[in-house]
## 1
Amino acid sequence: MTATLAADTAAATSARSRGFVPALEGMRGMAALGVLVTHVAFQTGATGMPVLGRVWERFDMAVAVFFALSGFLLWRPHATAARGLGAAPSAVDYLRHRAARILPAYWAVVCAVLVLLPSAADTAGLRVWMSNLALLQVFVPLTLTDGLTQMWSLSVEVAFYLVLPLLALAVVRLRGKSARWRVPAILTLALVSLSWNFLPVPTPDAIHADNWLPAYLPWFAAGMLLAELADDVHPLSLWRRIAGNQLLMWTVALIAFLFSSTDFGGPAGLTRAEPWQYAAKMGLGAIIGFGLLAPLVLGDRKHRWLESSVAATLGRWSYGIFLWHLAVLSIVFPVFGILPFAGSFVWVLILTVAITLPVAAASYALVEEPARKLARRMDRRKSGRKVPPTPEPQSVPQDAPTPAQVGAP
């Protein structure tokens, strides 16, 4: 019994000390490339290939990984605070860091695309400009435009940022011994959200409520659940051991991905899915997100590739990859004389990655990182003193971001 308690205590200490998990940064980079792959596959016609086409198409499940990452990283301070292991940030500080992380680089892309990309600039009226700058594309008809169509997911992401403080407030009384009820509360939220696509929500023409936050809450909830399990060690040690088993969890995630590549996860192409297919896709995406991330957070083994310098670099550039890849893809076709939807999947993929990576690196160095440093300087001015660096494990670089600074995409 003493040995068990000691093991649980050690696991709890490890969970608390891992404010930054290097493998998560690598996984974020892989998710960004997954989004890129599915868009290249669609625009080259590779999604029409027998069998493999459905697999390429379902690489859009990388968005589920992004959302689960956000759920974990942004809910983690609230989960630890509920167990007396730390303090959650104020809503003002939290929203300031989210704005610094997301908006400057995003606005740079929107302006560049709507001014410089002919297929977008030619149709960019005031409504398109305003809805894209305000991240309201999923609410305003016909405002998802060339080079920016992937931003629907960022609109959902930002909606989650705004709702998260309210979710934290809803369970604020579940602290101390009552914290054990937080996991059932999150599971209930996820299960109830699966019914969203069955509701007759009135929307304008060309707008679908299945692109709104309630439909995707199960994907965020997968990460929130993981945040709760990361510190709730003693009563859930068995579940931690199961969820921390990489072979088991990644196998489950692979099976869920393969199921999602069938009609169970929605029809091929852009055909509108039935409500039950949307619900199935949301459930499978939650399993994929949780299954891929849980071993990285709860497991004890090293993840050499995801913690490598290459994967870490891709993780740092992941937001830029997400933001810029469709604009790059739009110019690859005319510049290299390739016809859209006419094949050349591998060639277009290589070209898109080769051009997107340096653009994303520039976005990180010139826009994203300066904006985050500005937010931290504002923190120091507000406190009237220099904020000491957060201690990190030996394997983590000294300039590694904290959970409050990072999030998906």
Note: Residues 46 and 53 are 6 Å apart (CA to CA).
## 2
Amino acid sequence: MNGAIAVVGIGADGWDGLPESSRRALRTADVLIGAPRQLDLLPGDHCPGERIPWPSPLRPAVPGLLAAHRGRAIAVLASGDPSFYGIGRTLAETVGADRLRIHPHPSSVSYACARLGWPLEAVETVSLVARPLAALSAALHPGRRLLVLGEGSETPARVAALLRDTGWSGTRVRVLEQLGGPAERLLDATAADWPYERTDALHVLALDCVRDPDTLRLGAAPGLPDEAYEHDGQLTKRYVRAATLAALGPAPGELLWDIGGGSGSIGIEWMRTHRSCRAVAVEKSAERAARIERNADTLGVPGLRVVTGPAPTALAGLETPDAIFIGGGLTAPGLLDACWDALPAGGRLVANTVTLESEALLADRYRRHGGELIRLAVAAAVPVGGFTGWRQAMPVTQWSVTKGSEEG
């Protein structure tokens, strides 16, 4: 491939663990770029190219660094498989996949599964590299096996502390260090009695998830228990929330605007349906906006973006959504029009209300744009003296619609 950049995966076993094709790319390179640890694994007599360590921060430096060496044979070093949470993605987005010649090496996850006897296809991987620790929480379910890619020697202790603090202290934690190299080591304990403040920086964590008996159970489907949320009463209740998420129909990679965020439950559960789902919660109250951020952290979606301000003003400049939920503020002048105009063809809008004034607005939009107009009524069994009766919650009127191409 003429002018291609070689991207070579390398493990803790260094030069000895490389196939001939990877060695050839490194021997013939004029420029060798990588982390200092990776560059130190290359024997000088075999790899005479100029050695350049990555600057920090890495990603902004990539275009300039590659441009500075245009016309020279470049080889970039990566840990394990460059296309698995590695530099391969950054390079492909920077110069295009057609300019890369990737030489994969077994990833740390492949090594870990081989050591543990875990089937790779049945294991979920969570990366904490440049990501908040709270992102791990959404993946915790009883009996699940997780592999966690850590960042730095303190990550295992921080993960163990998170597990203790969130009701998963019985989880077995194993740290696999320097996988594939001569210094490979396994550390094994539960989160409750994790004794190591620091480990080798080059590691993978393996978790056998065990929920503590008194910890609230959180399923994978929308409609989490109301007790899972910190709230001041401004919360889309569990069964209405489940119906609302069903109407919104989240799909991988899609973006939701959650307007009138309240406690953030719709945006949070939208993001919990798939790790690539994104959401923006718009909330005019600063106190509630802070509460949304805390709920997002607790429930494992710290990437939820919170915009503090009144809609529709606060919607200006936001990325085009795939779906919009309006849970409050329907009577704000211009809100429904702004949301409708922001939706692309095929985008979905769902609005809930309990007031007659807002219901009239939704009925008018239903006549103009179609869709579905339904009423959700939920009753709960409660004590009535020595007997049991039904207590009716306020009915919720919901309008859901998909915008047609002729309405763009």
Note: Residues 83 and 89 are 6 Å apart (CA to CA).
